[in-house]
């Protein structure tokens, strides 16, 4: 199921060398202002509840209604937050960009308004990225780790990653795969399967807790950073990204982005409300 979803949401094959693959692309939004390009990642600022979506058409702040586009048009296939307004991303350049295709690893220190190339320009399209307390974990067909975002090393035992999750305050990384959940405690260097874990499509970590969602929209939560999971509620629509934040000691606030909107839960994923309800 995860493989089928990946085939649908993946980028189209690249055009011949020298062609402008994004020449006809433009930032697009629905009548309600929600971005219509594929959603590839999400970050939520827990201090302000600003919700950032990384999409085919660039980065959007959807905590405003209508959504606000931030920075240049880049097909942000991989996206992760390092906190304090610092983002890492990968993908393909948009119209007018002088970035190579693929863009490799790029970084923003101003909440996505500007981006600077860091490494692997013209080489890597990281479809999955995660920021840990010791650097970056990325998957561009090979699972790789970098302590500084510039020098990369392939991990010894490769796994076919669909989605990566971590926080910049911990060394734990979760990876969803077609064969089940994998977990690392050393910043992505080594991995172990998680026995008994549900087949999750996306996961998110926050202060030792985790949230995950299956391809069918079933929400699960974990109090031990992904070792054991508890079934919660469900969300409508096809999930495209998930984010979570531990509120106090007991409650996980969970955001789930679909192709039509963002749902938020304040009760560990048992029930969800469209974030636009809170904007009115």
Kindly describe this structure:
- This protein is mainly beta.
- It has two helices and 24 strands.
- The strands form six sheets. Strands 1-2-3-4 form a four-stranded antiparallel beta sheet, with no helix packed on it. A four-stranded antiparallel beta sheet has the order 5-6-7-8, with no helix packed on it.
- Strand 10 (135-139) and strand 11 form a beta hairpin.
- It is globular.
- Mean pLDDT is 89; it is low at 6-27.
State the gist of this model.
The protein is mainly β and about 280 residues long. It has helices at about 1-10, 275-280, and strands spanning about 40-45, 50-55, 60, 70, 75-85, 85-95, 105-110, 115-120, 130, 135-140, 145, 155, 160-165, 175, 180-185, 190-195, 200-205, 210-215, 220, 230-235, 240-245, 250-260, 260-265, 275.
Identify the notable features of this structure and list them briefly:
single chain; 280 residues; mainly beta; 4-stranded antiparallel β-sheet; 2 helices; 5% helix; globular
